[in-house]
Amino acid sequence: MKLRLNVIGGGLCALLLSSCLTITEKQIIPPPWRPAPVEGVEGFDGKPPIGQIAPVYFSTTEVPQIDGNFSEWEGLKGVYTRVMVYGGLFNPKNSDGHFVVRTDGENLYLFADITDDDPTVNPFPAPQAWRGDSIEFFFGTDTSPHKFYSGTDKRMRFVPKSKSNPRQYEVSINDQTVNIPDLQAVFVYGETGYRLEAKIPLNALNNKSLKVGKKVRMEFQINDADGGKERSRLVHWMSQEDKSYMDASTWGDGKVIALPNKGGDK
Asked: Of 2, 67, 226, 248, most Cβ neighbours within 10 A?
């Protein structure tokens, strides 16, 4: 009788274990991205600008002030985020972005001019703020072929919190909220979008000083959510996939060059 009970008990345990394994078995879920065809939309083909080098303008004497006055950025060529990762066709009146990067050797300075037909503030904490309107800037100095982030690869997310207070924002680095005294940012809203300028100490990114000629890696991203809903559009400069947050090989190339003289050819 005891042997019979042990056999029955063992059978029940095996059945329960099998059920648990069936219930908790992980299913393969397709990646949350789909490159969007945009041929014929306002002349934009939606393809990554392969081979384009993003400039990082160097000057130790002409340094941007983070004050919401964007005159220091006028005339400087940067890059545009026009690769739709998802969200339908590219629309130049919504989710278009122009990005410019500068440096004084010890800090990075980021400018973003975002066109958005419904610019809103973002209620989410910075690590989760990809779900609403926000800007992401990827930067690293390791130019060797690699996918997994190296020690110098950083993803910064700038999150606007107020339309009336330009200095009310949050920042995360590699999905960790940071409060770095010398890291500054300003968001300025308009009817057709918003602008950002920011100062980012290189030592906060585990990167050393920069000089003219230095090659770097970068990516730029717009997260866009309209009407208080979740993110509905994701736009990049270079990558067609939503994996730049974990795969540095999807970023594009950049190079530190001298800041053009005022009044010169820019």
From this structure: 248
E strand or H helix at 23: helix 2-24
Residue whose structure tokens are 């949050």: 170
Sketch the domain layout of the chain as residue ranges.
53-258
The 3-state DSSP class for residue 128 equals: helix
Among all chains, which residue has been given the structure tokens 């969200």? Answer: 87
Q: Can you tell me whether residue 22 is helix, strand or coil?
A: helix
Tens digit of pLDDT for each residue in 114-156?
Answer: 999 999 999 999 999 999 999 999 999 999 999 999 999 999 9
Q: Strand 193-201 and strand 107-115: pairing?
A: antiparallel
d(CA 54, CA 69): 23
Return the number of other C-beta atoms located less than 10 Å from residue 123's C-beta: 12
- Does the pTM surpass 0.70? The reply is yes
Q: What is the second-level CATH architecture of the domain 53-258?
A: Sandwich (2.60)
